[in-house]
Amino acid sequence: MYANDISSSKLGIALNNAKIYHAEQRISFINKDFLVLDKSKDFDNLIDIVFISLPWGGINYSKELIYNLDQIVPNFRETLRKALLLANNVVLFLPRNTDLRQLETIISSYDSLYSNSKECFVTIEALIKSNTNISALVVYIGPLFKVLKYYKHIA
After folding, report:
1. 74 with 34: CB under 8 angstroms?
2. Would strands 49-52 and 89-94 be described as parallel, antiparallel, or unpaired?
């Protein structure tokens, strides 16, 4: 398992959390810009899944009716493209008010990254907080998630 962050302090927090759960020996921590990671140089093993949780821009994201993914820094499109080049399966943690049409367009624009043997399946899960409010969306992309043909609500 790999953990990556450009921020050494955030990676330190991840390492501390791994120690709490006695998992630090199973995780390789990489302090590097995700967009410059090299599949053949930075990783010893095959990458099955990339999980991405980019900063949404503070609390202001929640003030918008529909959240434009192009506001995310670092660039959401470049980050997703890089993730799809690194692994067949990608999980995105996104704001609850994400523009789903925009998301579909972005994901569809990367169809060329999927060969005949690598189909793209997309499932969106809404995380429910307090039984009433959606707190975030989790988007699953890739052949591993073919079996997820439903929307799951987590209380």
Report:
1. yes
2. parallel
Residue 17's φ and ψ, nearest 5 degrees, are -60, -40
> CA 129 to CA 11: how far, in whole Å?
27
Q: 67: which strand partners?
A: 98
The Cα 38–Cα 23 span in angstroms is 24
Find where tokens 């052949």 sit.
143
Please, are residues 80 and 106 in contact by the beta-carbon 8 Å criterion?
yes
Which class is 47-145 in CATH?
Answer: alpha beta
Domain ranges (residues) in the chain = 47-145
pTM: 0.84
Residues 62, 97 contacting (CB under 8 angstroms): yes
Q: Quote the Cα angle for 115-107-45, to 5°.
A: 55
Q: Are 52 and 79 in contact (CB under 8 A)?
A: yes
Residue 98 DSSP class: B
Mean pLDDT by 10 residues, the chain (155 residues): 93 96 94 91 87 88 91 94 91 93 90 62 77 83 70 40
